[in-house]
Structure formats: C-alpha cells, structure tokens
Recover the amino acids of this structure.
C-alpha cells in the first residue's frame, strides 16, 4: 500500500518549500540579494507546472479506474525470482569490474591514490570519454538493484555488493554518483519499508544532523574555518562550537535558486536552441557537433558568488528556451513522475525506475536532469532486466501448464 510521503509530488513540493523556508531565515549575507517573496515567485515558475502535470495524470487514473487494473497486474506480476535476478546482477557486476579495470589500465593510476600521494594528476580527467559515463551509470544501477534484493528478499550478500560499488566510486573520486546511489537507496527504503513511526523519522533526522556535523568537523580540519565564514558572511554571531559545515550546507542549498533568480535578470535569451541537451550526448561526439555550454564552467554571469556556480537544474533550459521552456519541461516532468508512481509495484524494474525518478526530482535543486551519467540508468534498467523477466514468466507458464 502506497503512503502519501512516497509520492514524487510530496518530495518535489516539500524540497522547494524547504528551500523557501531556509532562504526566509536570511542567515548569510552572501545570498541575501532578493526578498523571500521574489524567491517564492521564482520557484513557482517550475513548481506550479509540475503540480499541474502531476494532477492531470492522477485525475486521469482516478477517472478511468486504473487503480483496480494496477492491483490485478501486481498480483499477476509476482513472478520474480531472486535467484535469477541475483545471477543477472553478478553478470553486470563482472562487466562493471572489467570496465573499471580497463579504465584504470588505460589511465595508469587510481584517482584516490594519486590524490593521497600528492600526484598532480587530476581526477576530473580520469576515464575514457563516453565509456566512463556508462560505467558510472552501470555501477549506480547495480548498487541500487542489489539494495532492492536485500530489502525485498533478504539477500544479505547484496549488502556487501553495495559496499563494494560505493568503495569503487570512492576510489574513483566520483562524489556525485556516490550521492546518486545513496538517494536511490533511500527512495527504495522509503517505498518498501516506509516510515512506520515518528521515532524512525526522528532517528533519520538525527543521523542527517550527525552527518552534517561530522562533515563540518572534517572541513574545519582541512582548512581554517575563519576563511569560509568570512566568505559566507553570517548575519548572526556564529557559535564557536558549531562547525562551519552547517553554514556551508545552508549556502549550498540556497545559492542555486538565488543564482537562478539572478539569471532571470541578467541573462537575456534571444537565440532559442537545444543546448540544454548537450549533457545527454556522449562526450566523444559532443565536440564534433559543436555542442558546448554557453557559459564557462566556473565563471557564469548569473553567479552571486564566484565560489558557487550552481543555478538549479533549470538553468540550462532557461538559457536555451527561456522561461516558457522551463515551465514546459516542468509540466512534462510532473506528468512522467506521476505516471511512473501510478504504475509502481513492489517488483525490481518499477522500483528501480521509481528510485531514479525520485533521485532526479530531488537533485533538480542542484543539478540538471539532462545528465548522461544518471539518465543512462533508465535504458539500462530495460536492457538488463526486461528479457530476464520475460524468460522467467515463460519458465513458470510452462511449468504450471504441466501440473496435473
């Protein structure tokens, strides 16, 4: 049975309302460029179309009585073998291991080891063009599917597989994919286990605060906290016992929407194009198509601070298609999220799709949806598991037909 807090609409609306709340506190002089009402109006540009698209699909399902057919399909579709799924997962893991080993052999170094030994080799340059994106998407899918098998069927060895994949990404210094995996596993946990008591919700909140506190302590050890606090310009007396990481997290959450609001004022769109799709095109052919970002990587005209260059996941759409492009995309995003949620059932493929959609929906606060490293998981889900499910159904249909 689905619960209200598992809905992509609740996640999407909740995270943007949380951003509005944090901005309204005006804790940093670095980002206090607009009134809270101006930020609220900016967020409404993509929040309202998303809600509208989501509501249209929900109303359509309700009018057509799709819930009844979905329950029938879920009961019929309970033909899922953890043994067969695990064998397929092992195959994908061996493929992932071979590809990672090949990239390391070609590069001649492991990024984390090179950083620890003080090497001048940049970990940003690690990996073979286009292949590296596939490797990251494959690893994220393997870890997420393994976590599903652990929660749904109690396959304990899958936890070790998840930890191994995370360790590989730590060695490759790919923090984004690490976060992607954690968010997708969180979505699966919330769907399969739920939040059954306020105590569990409180425990999750305490763990998040502890993680932020430890993150802040590590940050203060790596560099003087005064340097960051002078950049953040707190609007209150910052306690000595509080690590600078808390202010860093606040600014990192709030700065993207501030940058986007600033872009509406300083970036004029007069050449409509499809440049926002550049990140979906494999890098090996991106240059041949002259598909490059309009702005430099770390120097963009909308930045309110040179240290923070993120402007939500909608900045590429805005720079290519103006506000109407942002609204149109958000509308179809709501339709897609609602459709996938309505089709959700406790089986591997729909749960994996749900976890990817929830992760993408949340990360719209920080990064673009059109990222090949993340989006490639969706076709991989169908390529890796659709034929497997078909074979299993055929196997069961033959076996059952022979029964007396």
């Amino acid at each position: 049975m689905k619960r209200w807090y598992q809905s992509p609409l609740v996640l999407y609306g909740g995270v943007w309302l949380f951003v509005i709340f944090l901005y309204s506190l005006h804790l940093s002089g670095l980002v206090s460029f607009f009134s809270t009402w101006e930020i609220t109006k900016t967020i409404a540009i993509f929040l309202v179309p998303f809600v509208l698209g989501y509501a249209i699909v929900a109303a359509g399902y309700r009018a057509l009585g799709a819930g009844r057919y979905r329950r029938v399909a879920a009961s019929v579709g309970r033909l899922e073998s953890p043994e067969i799924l695990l064998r397929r997962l092992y195959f994908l893991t061996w493929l992932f291991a071979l590809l990672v080993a090949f990239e390391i052999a070609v590069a001649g170094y492991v990024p984390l080891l090179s950083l620890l030994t003080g090497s001048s080799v940049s970990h940003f340059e690690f990996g073979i063009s286009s292949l590296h994106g596939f490797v990251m998407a494959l690893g994220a899918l393997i870890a997420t599917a393994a976590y599903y098998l652990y929660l749904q069927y109690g396959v304990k060895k899958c936890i070790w597989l998840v930890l191994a994949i995370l360790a590989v990404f730590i060695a490759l210094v790919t923090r984004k994919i690490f976060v992607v995996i954690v968010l997708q596993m969180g979505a699966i946990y919330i769907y399969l286990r739920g939040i059954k008591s306020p105590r569990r919700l409180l425990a999750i909140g305490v763990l998040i605060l502890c993680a932020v506190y430890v993150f802040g302590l590590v940050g203060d050890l790596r560099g003087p906290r005064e340097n960051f606090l002078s950049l953040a310009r707190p609007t209150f007396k910052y306690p000595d016992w509080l690590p600078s990481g808390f202010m860093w997290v606040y600014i990192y959450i709030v700065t993207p929407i501030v940058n986007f609001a600033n872009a509406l004022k300083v970036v004029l769109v007069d050449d409509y194009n499809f440049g926002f799709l550049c990140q979906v095109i494999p890098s090996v052919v991106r240059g041949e198509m002259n598909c490059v970002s309009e702005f430099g990587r770390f120097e963009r005209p909308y930045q309110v601070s040179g240290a923070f260059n993120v402007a939500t996941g909608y900045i590429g759409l805005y720079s290519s298609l103006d506000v109407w492009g942002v609204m149109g995309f958000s509308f179809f995003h709501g339709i897609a999220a609602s459709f996938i949620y309505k089709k959700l059932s406790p089986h591997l493929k729909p749960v994996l799709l749900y976890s990817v959609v929830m992760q993408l929906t949340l990360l719209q606060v920080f990064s673009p949806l059109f990222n090949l490293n993340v989006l490639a998981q969706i076709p991989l889900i169908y390529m890796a598991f659709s034929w497997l499910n078909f074979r299993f159904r055929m196997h069961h249909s033959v076996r059952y037909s022979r029964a007396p």
User: Anything to note?
Assistant: The chain has a mean pLDDT of 81.
